[in-house]
Amino acid sequence: MHTYDTLLEAITVDDGREIFDPATGDLIGRVPEHTAADVDAAIERAEAAQKSWAALSDDERVAYLNRAADAIDENAEALAELLSREQGKPLNGPNARFEVGGCAAWTRVPAGTPLPVEVVVDDGETYAEMHYRPLGVVGAITPWNWPMMIAIWQIVPSLRMGNTVVSKPSEHTPLSGLAITHVLNSVLPEGVLNTVVGGGKLGARIVESERIAKIMFTGSTRTGKRIIEASSGNIKRLTLELGGNDAGIVLDDADPKAIAEGLFWGAFINTGQTCAALKRLYVPDSLYDEVVEALAEVARSMPMGHGLDEQNVLGPLQNQMQFDVVDRLVKAATASDARVVIGADPDYDAPGYFYPTTLIAEIDPRNDLVREEQFGPVLPIIRYTDLEDAIAQANDLEVGLGGSVWSSDRERAREVAARIQAGTVWINSHGTINPFVPFGGAKQSGYGQEFGVAGLKAVAQPQVIQG
């Protein structure tokens, strides 16, 4: 079992790229600077290990994964502290400890999900079965916002189905990626899971390699399009979870006080740095002022600060790039006739990338803060008088990852939800994912599904045997 110090020692080097705490600017450690040759070597190791890994029985691979989940649990506090220091998210609330717990859960559930052979036709004349075979080597390219849990989402189903993996964490959070794979590799056979760290050029090397059979990527739509183009050499299979700008629609029968905390966490989980977070909220004129005030009351009660302070539930933005995006979009809103309810006043001279919790009311639905993904602790609240218009505005973007409807009438909410163009639409919550429930985007938010049986099938080659 690792402490924070021993875990850090196991994954860092004396002379490498420096990684800093986004809350303080303090040096955390140094990581290797891998090259294209290191990527090629990792692919070779994965190829060499794949046949023997696939030759194991399903029960044997499941046993390995369950032991990996146990190893995550045994090292949970060390993992959470490292995650908090590097990513910035607090230990408490739906943050670092929550994420590490999710890593264990999302390891056990794919390991325990049955995927039997399917008899698709048996009519006395024709007999056909559907099997799911390994693809080979999977490339897993992960983001900086949930750097451990999203890695698990990509790695574990791939391993369960007999593939081996080459993973590349975001260059912003390499320690988190190295730490979670180090813990997994404490129980997995050598070569089954390989990790390289570095920037976009290494990711491109993985994508372009004709020895990689499948790419799993979570990140921006812009990068996703480049992956689609670069993967054509060997017609790679792709699962792409790309950008979102999720809309929530409050119906006129909702109870503002009852939904306020759910709305807050739907928008501000991980300090707003979540692909499927609530990023624009449409509220009817009859409830507008009540919803805005109820949300503001909740927001004022949520402490923000350094993640290792046990009282905090909101942290800094992870990097300067994202701080600048949020700052630009809030300035665009405040330069218009929009009203700042709370926030929008960062201390530019203070250490860390802290941006205050911000609610923007009376905003034009065409404002950049509404139409672009802010990916930070900011929520624009748009007033509407006609539900049809609100639905049209919710759908009037090229992305469609998630959405939500908030109402006291579940059946009415379901009718509205069916008209929202998104991969998942929640009712009276937002972003509440479940390892048994498939998840994926619509429109330019990507394609392919993760989680559940659908997620296992997505990292396998379907094969029909007939006769």
Summarize the structure.
The protein has 467 residues and is of the alpha/beta class. Helix content is 40%, strand content 20%. The termini are far apart.
Describe this structure in words.
The structure is a single chain. The protein is built from 16 helices and 20 strands. Helix 4 runs antiparallel to helix 7. By secondary structure, the chain is an alpha/beta fold. The model has no long low-confidence stretch (mean pLDDT 97). The chain has 2 domains: 4-242 and 445-466, 3-Layer(aba) Sandwich (Aldehyde Dehydrogenase, Chain A, domain 1), CATH 3.40.605.10; 246-427, 3-Layer(aba) Sandwich (Aldehyde Dehydrogenase, Chain A, domain 2). The protein is globular and about 60 Å long. The strands form 5 sheets. A 7-stranded mixed sheet has the order 12-13-14-11-10-16-17, with helices on both faces. A 6-stranded mixed sheet has the order 7-6-5-8-9-19, sandwiched between helices. Helix 7 (174-185) links the parallel strand 6 (164-168) and strand 7 (193-195).
State the domain count.
Answer: 2
**Poorly predicted residue ranges:** none
Rg over CA atoms: 23 Å
Classified by CATH, the class of the largest domain is Alpha Beta
How much helix is in the residues? 25-40%
Keywords: Oxidoreductase
InterPro entries: Ald_DH/histidinol_DH, Ald_DH_C, Ald_DH_CS_CYS, Ald_DH_CS_GLU, Ald_DH_N, Aldehyde_DH_dom, LUC3-like
Family: Belongs to the aldehyde dehydrogenase family.
Protein name: Aldehyde dehydrogenase family protein
